[in-house]
From TrEMBL:
Protein name: GNAT family N-acetyltransferase
UniProt entry tagged with the keyword Membrane: no
This protein's record includes keyword Transferase: yes
Organism of origin: Mycolicibacterium rufum
Keywords: Acyltransferase, Transferase
All residue ranges annotated as the N-acetyltransferase domain in the record: 146-297
InterPro entries, alphabetized: Acyl_CoA_acyltransferase, Bact_Acetyltransf, GNAT_dom, Rv0428c-like_C, SH3_Rv0428c
Taxonomy of the source species: Bacteria, Bacillati, Actinomycetota, Actinomycetes, Mycobacteriales
Cross-referenced Pfam families: Rv0428c_C, SH3_Rv0428c
GO molecular function: acyltransferase activity, transferring groups other than amino-acyl groups
Length: 297
């Protein structure tokens, strides 16, 4: 057996086939999700290939494919529809969201097309009329933040391919019930949690200890995206793999409904969440951070 790749790495892995096959070896390219007891590699099409550790012959790390600005725009568009607040409006290529002040994401503007003082000023007025600061969710390469302007809550936007799968023990519902709300342990109003534009959202629960949300929306290029969010495991049940099993079930639900890509948005300093998603095969797509409109004007 050769050395094994690191979890989350994108590799080209060669492995030995069973006796009697027409060729002795074959290859798989994808992200490593597990190395013990077997090596699991998730391909770009969402297929999960299992290889016995002793059958691994060799591997090489394959560089991630470069992300273009258009791909960031498409993903940010789908993600904005998946968490739109309780009120939203398109304004000259910007998607403005208001959720009564609950969460930054539901109360920020996403600049998806044009960016100038005109758009920033219009967004500032829109939020001022609702009594909240004008917060801009500024994705890499879609919005340039001038040097010296303060930012907050940098997020890693991580992605992977998915396909149909099994829910397992995860239960899903169109609305969060009282138990879901209790386990979530955050004061986010139900109308904010359930809001979605031109898509579908469900709430998953596992073992009475873990909850999460997944929203299925479509990007302008036709990609059907699954956005996992609001994942929480109660303190007494952590380190038992519940978050992983919950997320696997939510992605299986989305894959069964035609989603081919998935994303998560993780605050940079949330090391535990980042490690979880890396182990699941998510890799960095781009970064985003929040900036106040008043600091730009």
């Amino acid at each position: 057996m050769t050395d094994l790749p690191e979890l989350g790495a994108r590799v080209s892995l060669r492995y030995r086939l069973p006796a009697g096959e027409s060729r002795p070896f074959t290859d798989v390219v994808g992200h490593v999700e597990q190395v013990d007891p077997a090596v699991l590699v998730r391909t770009r099409h969402g297929d999960l290939v299992s290889v016995r550790r002793d059958d691994v012959v060799a591997f090489r790390v394959v560089p991630e494919q470069p992300v273009r600005a258009g791909q960031i725009r498409n993903l940010e568009h789908a993600a904005a529809l998946a968490w739109p607040g309780t009120e939203h409006q398109w304004l000259d290529g910007w998607f403005l969201r208001f959720g009564g002040g609950a969460t930054r994401r539901a109360n920020s503007a996403v600049p998806l097309q044009f960016t100038s003082v005109t758009e920033i000023t219009a967004a500032a007025r829109w939020y001022a009329s609702r009594g909240v600061p004008a917060l801009i969710s500024a994705p890499d390469r879609l919005f340039r933040i001038p040097e010296g302007v303060p930012t907050d809550a940098e997020n890693l936007v991580m992605t992977r391919d998915i396909g149909p799968g099994e829910l397992g023990e995860v239960s899903v519902a169109a609305l969060p019930d009282d138990d879901w709300i209790r386990l979530y342990e955050r004061e986010v109003p139900v109308p904010v949690l359930t809001a979605v534009v031109d898509g579908e959202v469900v709430f998953g629960a596992l073992a009475g200890s873990a909850v999460g949300r997944v929203a299925l929306t479509e990007a302008p290029d036709g990609t059907r995206w699954a956005g996992v969010s609001a994942v929480h495991v109660v303190a007494s049940a952590r380190r038992r793999g519940l978050a992983r099993r919950l997320c696997d079930g939510l992605l299986a639900w989305a894959g069964d409904r035609g989603a081919t890509r998935a994303y998560v948005q993780v605050v940079t300093d949330n090391d535990a969440a980042r490690r979880l998603y890396e182990q699941m095969g998510f890799t960095l797509h781009h970064r985003s951070r929040y900036v106040r409109a008043e600091d730009l004007l």
